Amino acid sequence: MTTASGSAEEHTGDVSELLALVARQLDLRMPEIVREMRDLLASRIDDLGGDPQLVEMLQASIEGNVTTICHILANGIDLESLQPTTAAVEYAARLAQRDVPLAALTRAYYLGQSMFLRLGMDEAERLGVSDRVKIDVVRDIADVVHRYIDWILQLVTGVHEQERRRWWTTRATLNASIILKVLRGDSLPIRGFVSETGYTLAQTHLGVMAWSDVDAEDAARQHEIDHLLRRLATAVHSSAAPLITVVDRSTAWAWFGGARLDAGALARVEDLVATVPGVRTALGEPGHDVEGFRRTHEQAAIARLVALSSPRYRDRAVVSYADPQVALVQLLTKDATATATWVREVLGDYAGAGEQARVMRDTVAAYYAADKNAVRTAEQLGVHRNTVRQRVDRFEASVGARGVDPLQVALALRIYDDLLLEGADARHT
After folding, report:
1. How far apart are the C-alpha atoms of 58 and 153, rounded to whole Å?
2. Does domain 198-325 have CATH number 3.40.50.720?
3. Average pLDDT of 300-321?
């Protein structure tokens, strides 16, 4: 039987010659193989197919790897004498710079391996040799391909990890310098900012701060925060890649361009942050252009301060400046001692711990919220109206000659949780 690759009489025993023949046949089809493999990987792995430049680099990496494998098959070269192709190394580094996870790169190599094995077996079928020889050829092809993929994956994995750490740190450091200039109010051309950071100031900005409340390995936690911020940018419909800068080992600042922070977006943010235990976020409100860039960052900083200092917010993973209470708490906590003194003056004996004081605060808060209607207050609290009247009388009597200002009492009750007590007694206003 004669085939396109030769006859059975010509190829009966020397597997190395058959491997070389298979390699030559594959090499002749190189452009076709590379295109098909590129299209397969770009379509099957989302992280690899969204950027034309990455697709072009993917093609170059595929061509370099396939050419090397064919070279090994044709010449029986040992892996120890090989150097990784420049295209494969550069592609791994570029994926790290684009924050494409290592898992995507690994999957690409395994999908490419499967496709190359299928092509190699197809060529082995065309050799026109006995089944026994054909099995030997296929076994050797598989052995070469598996060993090469294992070898190259170790190399590009190391490149990806090293570049990810270097790029992330370098990018964050460079961003920090130019960002601080803008936050300080230094004069800086918008085009200059774009060229340095890849982020334009001529848009709407949403300022975000993210930090970790738990100890973790620095690089791993930094990358975790970075990845979360990028997911959050998508959740609020940011129109471009976020601007991120590192503040310390467990804190990062970010700006999301063109973001919208409606109730649905905030809910998505809360859901995403909940998937990363120990990480918390503070959000500003959207602001426009350079002033908006500064102001939304200031608002995020205020929200973070409240998240760290207020018992009301200390257990929340997401704190937004859009919450009306946040700005109020921040204003009051600028002089927390004076504010706490004022609250105690207004609430008198009932500005303290204990069940009796808590019940009184709940009753008075409900009473003034119901416009001093004892019947509605009783219905809300599930007690008799006479009980409400007795409690309110005791509270007003405790105030003494100073008298009761309903507005002051309502405000004092509202901020009591945030400024005075640390324990559960303060969580009922």
Report:
1. 15
2. no
3. 88
